[in-house]
Amino acid sequence: MKFGLVDRQGYVPDLNYGASGQELACFVPPDYPFTQVSYQNGEGEVLVDGHTWRFIFTQEGIGVELMAGIVTLKEADKFLHDIKSHIWGSSHQQVQIFISGVAPD
After folding, report:
1. Mean pLDDT estimate for the chain
2. In contact, 12 and 4? CB cutoff 8 Å
3. CA atoms of 8 and 16, how far apart (whole Å)
4. Apex CA 4: angle with CA 75 and CA 67, to 5°?
5. What is the pTM of this model?
6. Cα–Cα distance between 8 and 73 in angstroms, integer?
């Protein structure tokens, strides 16, 4: 399942990548213990509570994809809102969360 976090004006704050092996801490909220699975060029995968999530940059903002594991829509929604608050701050209201995919031809 793919999700997008998109600011209406295209704003993504400068991300402060973590130390080596924890670079993706800039995406994962601090109250979610995680293990970094992969990292390359500012993107990669983390393991959070038995689920593998991938973080990528898209033309519109930040993509978050559930790569392995099963979560309820409510769990995914909470995680995505926590990511939004972690990256943009809790008072930033311009960010929208979308379920994304490939448009049919």
Report:
1. 89
2. no
3. 22
4. 60
5. 0.88
6. 23
SS3 48: strand
The amino acid that residue 33 corresponds to is P
Tell me the backbone φ, ψ of residue 24, rounded to 5 degrees. -75, 10
- Give whole-number Cα distances, 93 to 23, 59, 68, in Å: 26, 20, 30
The mean per-residue pLDDT over the stretch 63-75 comes to 94
| 26 closest CA partner among 38, 14, 18 | 18
pLDDT digits (tens, 9 = 90+) for 22-68: 999 999 999 999 999 999 998 999 999 999 999 998 877 899 999 99
Q: What H or E segment, with its residue span, contains residue 82?
A: helix 73-88
Amino acid, res. 8 = R
